[in-house]
Amino acid sequence: MIDAVVVAPGESRASALSGVSWPSILAGAVVACALTLVLLAFGTGLGLTVVSPWTGSGISATTFKITTGLYLVVIAMISSSLGGYIAGRLRSGWDGVERDEVYFRDTAHGFVAWALASVLGAALLATPATSLVGSAVTGASQGAAAHAAQPAGPMDAYVDSLLRGDPAAQNLGANPADTRSEVTRLFARSFRNGGDLKAPDREYAAKVVAARTGMSQADAEKRVNDVVTQIKADADAARKATAALAFWITASLLLGAFSASLAATEGGGLRDGTWKLRR
């Protein structure tokens, strides 16, 4: 039994069967992804030229963050607009379809092209991240043995400042590498998932600092407190930066969807010769 195709009044059978032009959608999505990669590469190079390690040179960190967020929005709007325009301009014709229906289909083509481009872009970004995570998991079994000989953990900078002592002090302990690894593990465990250094651990860390640096116990406790405060401040700054980045990405995605949908209607109108009538 063959299913019947219901054709709306004023709409031909051919146009009813071709409501979605997947080749044009795919073309628009690919163009949007390619342009996004080009603009990201350009933005990366531009960012390296304005950031300087010298004090008083280049732009401030706050200005850089805001500029980066705005540039993400600009990238999304430009790439999505071009992708949506390609999807609308290359789609097949719909003879006999009412103008409002054509407008809706063009808008849908732009939106679907943006959605496909977003999925493709996420997949392209997720593949390198998955490889990095896999490499990290593979090397995790060797981490305990290699850490003492070649420390490269995220807490090493804090431990460096914690154990920095007077060069004239010679009482550095029998095995400084073991002491450093122990303190590093202590900090990593305590501050995991936003935790804090407990009172016994704080007291022990101060004793280790006093023994390694030759400082008094009071000065060692003050240094421990200062480092703990710095760790919390850096963690809070990282959390705020992540939240701000998520906001900018969300804004860029929403504006990209709007730009792609609007550009697709413009491209479709130019293809059909009805752009001035829509205006």
List keywords for this structure.
75% helix, 2 domains, 279 residues
Can you give the mean pLDDT? 77
The span between the termini is 46 Å
* SS element count, helices: 10
How many domains in all?
2
Helix-strand topology string? HHHHHHHHHH
Structural class: mainly alpha
Architecture overview:
By secondary structure, this protein is mostly helical. The chain has 2 domains: 20-129 and 248-278, no CATH class; 148-235, no CATH class. Helices cover 75% and strands 0% of the residues. The chain has 10 helices and no strands. Helix 7 (176-190) packs antiparallel against helix 8 (199-213). The longest helix has 56 residues, at 217-272. It is rod-shaped, with a radius of gyration of 29 Å. Residues 1-8, 10-16 and 128-151 have low confidence and may be disordered.
